[in-house]
Structures are given as C-alpha cells and as structure tokens.
Amino acid sequence: MDSENIELENENTEPENPQLTLLKDRIEYAENIFGDNETYENVLNRLLEDSKYVALSIRYPYQDFSNMELPDKYKNWQLRCCQEIYNGIGTEGIKSYSENGLSWTRDSGYISYELRNEIESFVGYIVENEVEENV
To answer: Which of the residues 9, 23, 55, 125 has the least number of beta carbons within 10 Å of its own beta carbon?
Structure first.
C-alpha cells in the first residue's frame, strides 16, 4: 500500500472519542472475553452511553435529557461509573454473599450509592403563566 492510500484511509476514519481512550486504560482488552477489538470497542461505547444516561437521569430527574450532553465536570465520574457497571457484570460488585442458600446482593443496581451521590440533582421551579385579561 502506498503512502497516498494510507493518507486517504486515515482521513476517512473518525477521531477516537477521548472518553473511549481513557476508558480503555481502565478496562483492558481481553481476547477471551471480547473476542475481537470491534466487540471490545462496542462494549466500551455502550458503557459510555449507559453511564451518560445514568448521570443525566440523576442530574435532571424531571426533565427530558435525551438530547443533552454530559457536563464536563462529570467526565471522570462517567469513567468510574463505566468501571462499576462493567465490574458488576461478573461476580465483582457483590455487596453480600451466602453459601448454602446461594444468595448474593449487589449495591444499588448499576452503580453504588457513593458514586450516585456524587451527582448533584438539578431541578427547576414552577413558573405560573400570567394571562392578561382585556378589560
């Protein structure tokens, strides 16, 4: 392949999401788990997307946040949330375990209460519509 084709190939690829790059440092690729690099990146992107919506649902509990972006101050939180969700897939993240009855408990669904409490909820206030009467 000549250098011209390599340059065209590099121009067509999108730059990698900086959050994805940072998440790769926290969740390492393991061929026996992911199979290939494409699956690995898809899993990490889904974790980033899920953690974004977890954060936004806590931050804006009474608003439609489907088109909102995660505030920059929660970018590190998002990475830690991805780690907790990923660790919760297996046996990690178990809060308690018992042997004979085979029962185990996770800490608060997807993420721990400690992590959840780092997000400040933002709620608005009621605005009354003033109707002018024509007299």
So the answer is: 125
